[in-house]
Amino acid sequence: MSHTAEAKPAPAKKPFYKVLYVQVLTAIVLGGVVGWLFPEFAKNDWIKAMGDGFIKLIKMVIAPIIFCTVVSGIAHIKDAKSVGRIGVKALVYFEVVSTFALVIGLAIGNIVRPGDGFGASGANAATVQTYVKQAGEMKSVDFVLHIIPDSVVGAFAAGDILQVLLFSILFGFALMALGERGATVRSFIDDVAHGIFGVIAIIMKAAPIGAFGAMAYTIGRFGPSALTNLFGLIATFYVTAALFIFVVLGAIAHIAGFSIFRFIRYIKDELLIVLGTSSSESALPQLMEKLERLGCSKPVVGLVVPTGYSFNLDGTNIYMTLATLFIAQALGVDLSFGQQATILIVAMLTSKGASGITGAGFITLAATLTVVDPRLVPGMAIVFSIDKFMSECRALTNITGNGVACVVISWWEGELNREKLDKGLSRDIDPTDVQTAVTTG
Length: 441
Hints:
By secondary structure, the protein is mainly alpha-helical.
């Protein structure tokens, strides 16, 4: 009792220029300025390599982090039924919330009608055709079979999240069945996870460099005009995503007993990294570690977050319905109520099928348009030039949705540490302190 009552000295506050989110935000602004004023310099391969290199560093540790987290979480559970219960609850939550995202995108598209008066120009038809071909090749049976890796080593080498997740779940159950005989392996996996989080702490020091390179290259490559060419669609998408986060996710968070605003403040570092790199995967390991420190149980974090990256793509769902209506309006194609209902069904399926594919949002849009009305497919060229900027909003919405999902399902499962949640949301936690937090926590 004396230990818990003992007052701990408050940690020394870092100078603002040493705080990660300040560094990343500064790098994003500087990258935008450099890309605008010195576009030829910004298009240099070495500038592009800064952003690509940082994302590769993060992707390097995603597979082992997911393996260690999932295996450890399942192996420490005494009852196998609870794992299945968490999985079912997660899938039910994903489908319900994803449907809300699709409906909101469809509603805003019909009300605002951002495509009215636009012309289909300035497009790269050859590149668009590549995405259309990829979308046409996607089938549900292929997606299911793709979850099963040809080899375990191949799954880790390719960094395929679903394949690694499948093997991790199987290995976790096998380890749980061993009981006390598996204690040594469980302990070893826990130690490996701590070591990998230490590697992440080192990698995160390069986040400002990655954000600068990614933003500078994007602005230099596409030019400031890319931001203003279709500003109406960009603005509508960003406002719709914000509406979804603060109204829909905010209401869900309120029911679970926490504030969406405080939660977003808690993960602001991850959001800025995603904004700078346009990749939600760049913050996946950080998000998982932060959610555990926020009071979510290890089994829930290990199952919900990786699964959510394939089945809970709220930002992608909003984008698909909104972009489909935008293209139809721009081309003067009137979509019937039945066709708009088809968008909901098709988009719900295609958003799952394209997980892990480069340009997934654009590919799923191609798949959706092909099924809804083939006349809309050429209209993809309208939004191609600004897809890079749309992808940032998709990624920000996706990572926020998955973070909220993890907390809500932990609460639903009765495994949310409310004391940790309140403490975590009431103060800043610097991701660069992750190694210390893992060691002491």
